[in-house]
């Protein structure tokens, strides 16, 4: 008998073996099923898919990944958010006779995933620093007695010597490394602790590893495989396309007004508004709250208790909108987010893709809106350049330039996005702002000459806002104090709006005729390219300013379903969720309710045919939903 085995056998509890400090504000842990999980058997992955999860067919690639993992092969899974990554390790966990260890950096996701698995009747648990020591002891005892099939842990917890030795004694059937891009130096969310996961393969050479991520370019993928020492892995790269997401990028003129206009089209829908700073998060939250929205702020400046409360209330649909920095949302397990707004420009396409990917995970239509201000570009580049690591500066600059190119694109947004991830598409998507409202060009020579001349006559010492004030003939105090109301360019553009001139000047910046000196309050400077425009030697075509357009307010979410019945089913779901102390989507997703409201099942066999209804949920909730549907049909 090994030293570890002897120690566990002799201890009345695991407290001597598994020593950790209790947290003053523990996260409550739901009781696990006290059954021997090894007694539950399934004939195949297909049976698990239908009986437990309620789905008739695998998505593309899932079955192959599961098969490879069950045969003991290392795997790498690259699927978009909402693409079904979790099923790739959850189904093998029920077919293997040893525990599956899921490594994730997301403490909130652990509890959400475990709650959802327990509702499906799957013995699952998590161990993290937000539990008391007693709660941790309970989970580890259940693991020792083969009462857990899936255990979620952070990389820091997994790499503790005592924890590693305990799972070695209990036996591991599969390691699933979620958010695997975090261990790559090329990844957009690199985390130092993830690098130490390279010890898993040497210590568990016969246990397959599954690496999962939604965002990894080619360099990141190779790095993931090398860092984890994957042995001839089976790699599945699914499509990065999320056709249910509508991508819209608006030039940022009056962002708060633009946001308010957009939210009018999203009545009672769940959404996230991302901002670049904590101060902006708090400011926008206050303004939305004053307009009557059920809104809350989330950023790293708030304590853990506040952040947990906001996330829980959002999950339970008690909060409609979360305004947040990027500290919020990674791994959010909420399928009915109907919109994501970026108030500021993300630094990478990977970040943008991952954050927009939190919308529409149930497959129903969702909106992704980004406000783009070209004035942010030099500021962000300056911040990137401040990093002392030159190699990192090169990588981050390259990625930021790609994000700017996406925001500036005059071709289908989805094509640009997919091409970045090496998924080349010949067809325009028909579901982005460029496809729905194609940009038009016009002869902007005169407008450009007026703007460039105004910059020159203001001695290249002022910013965009001041130039627009002069062009439009504003009599504000600064214009008067500088004597700019006496310039020949004063009021020559008064027939055009502020937004028109903002667009023209930004395009001149994009095209290299004007530069912004961020070291001097973003003063506008003419470049050598501006001279032939000012002299009238060449004509200039620019994109027609797209002011006040709305491409997101005329689309119904779903057609051909009974909306009154859907509302009743949502009300029932909310009551059941509160009774079971879980978020509503854990009972059934919006997509499942929509299908019920369309197909009108009135007996268990018909209800079981609805996507997302498995045998456990049928037994637990079936009668209640059938009764509501039956009463509705009789009324």
UniProtKB/TrEMBL annotation:
Keyword DNA damage in annotation: yes
Q: What is its EC number?
A: 5.6.2.4
Helicase ATP-binding domain residues are 66-234
Q: Which cofactor does it need?
A: Mg(2+); Zn(2+)
Any one annotated GO CC term: replisome
State a single Gene Ontology molecular function: metal ion binding
Name this polypeptide is given? DNA helicase RecQ
* Record organism: Psychrosphaera ytuae
């Amino acid at each position: 008998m090994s030293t570890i085995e002897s120690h566990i056998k002799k201890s009345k509890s695991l407290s001597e073996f598994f020593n950790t400090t209790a947290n003053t504000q523990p996260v409550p842990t739901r009781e696990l099923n006290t059954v021997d999980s090894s007694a539950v058997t399934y004939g195949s992955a297909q049976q698990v898919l239908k009986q437990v999860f309620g789905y008739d067919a695998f998505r593309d690639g899932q079955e192959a990944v599961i098969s490879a993992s069950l045969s003991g092969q290392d795997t790498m899974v690259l699927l978009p958010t909402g693409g079904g990554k979790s099923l790739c390790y959850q189904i093998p966990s029920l077919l293997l006779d040893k525990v599956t260890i899921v490594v994730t950096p997301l403490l909130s996701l652990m509890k959400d995933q475990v709650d959802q698995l327990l509702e499906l009747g799957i013995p699952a648990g998590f161990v993290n620093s937000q539990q008391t020591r007693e709660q941790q002891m309970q989970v580890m005892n259940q693991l020792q007695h083969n009462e857990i099939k899936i255990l979620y842990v952070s990389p820091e917890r997994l790499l503790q010597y005592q924890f590693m030795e305990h799972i070695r004694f209990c036996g591991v059937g599969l390691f699933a490394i979620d958010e695997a891009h975090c261990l790559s130096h090329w990844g957009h969310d690199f985390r130092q602790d993830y690098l130490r996961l390279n010890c898993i393969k040497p210590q568990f050479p016969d246990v397959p590893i599954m690496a999962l991520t939604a965002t990894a370019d080619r360099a990141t993928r190779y790095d993931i495989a090398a860092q984890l020492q994957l042995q001839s892995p089976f790699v599945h790269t699914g499509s990065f396309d999320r056709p249910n997401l509508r991508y819209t990028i608006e030039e940022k003129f009056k962002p708060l007004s633009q946001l308010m206009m957009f939210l009018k089209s999203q009545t009672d829908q769940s959404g996230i508004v991302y901002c670049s700073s904590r101060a902006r998060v708090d400011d926008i939250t206050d303004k939305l709250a004053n307009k009557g929205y059920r809104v809350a702020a989330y950023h790293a400046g708030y304590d853990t208790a506040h952040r947990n409360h906001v996330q829980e209330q959002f999950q339970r649909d008690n909060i409609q909108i979360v305004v947040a920095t990027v500290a919020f949302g990674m791994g959010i397990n909420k399928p009915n987010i109907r919109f994501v707004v970026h108030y500021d420009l993300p630094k990478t396409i990977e970040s943008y893709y991952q954050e927009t990917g939190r919308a529409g995970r149930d497959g129903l239509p969702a909106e992704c809106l980004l406000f783009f201000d070209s004035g942010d570009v030099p500021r962000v580049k300056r911040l990137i350049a401040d990093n002392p690591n030159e190699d990192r500066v090169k990588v981050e600059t390259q990625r930021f330039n790609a994000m700017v190119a996406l925001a500036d694109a005059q071709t289908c947004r989805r094509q640009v996005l997919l091409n970045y991830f090496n998924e080349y598409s010949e067809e325009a998507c028909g579901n982005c702002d460029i496809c729905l409202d194609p940009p038009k060009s016009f002869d902007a020579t005169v407008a450009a000459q007026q703007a460039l001349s105004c910059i020159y006559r203001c001695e290249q010492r002022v910013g965009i806002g001041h130039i627009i004030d002069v062009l439009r003939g504003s009599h504000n105090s600064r214009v008067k104090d500088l004597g700019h109301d006496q310039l020949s360019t004063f009021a020559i553009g008064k027939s055009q709006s502020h937004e028109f001139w903002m667009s023209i000047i930004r395009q001149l910046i994009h095209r290299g005729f004007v530069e912004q000196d961020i070291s001097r309050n973003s003063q506008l400077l003419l470049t050598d390219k501006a001279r032939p425009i000012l002299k009238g030697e060449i004509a200039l075509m620019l994109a027609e300013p797209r002011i006040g357009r709305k491409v997101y307010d005329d689309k119904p979410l779903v057609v051909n379903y009974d909306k009154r019945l859907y509302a009743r089913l949502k009300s029932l779901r909310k009551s059941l969720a509160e009774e079971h102390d879980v978020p509503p989507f854990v009972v059934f997703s919006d997509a499942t309710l929509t299908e019920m409201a369309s197909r009108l099942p009135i007996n268990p066999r018909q209800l079981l045919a609805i996507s997302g209804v498995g045998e456990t949920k049928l037994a637990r909730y079936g009668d209640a939903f059938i009764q509501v549907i039956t009463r509705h049909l009789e009324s």
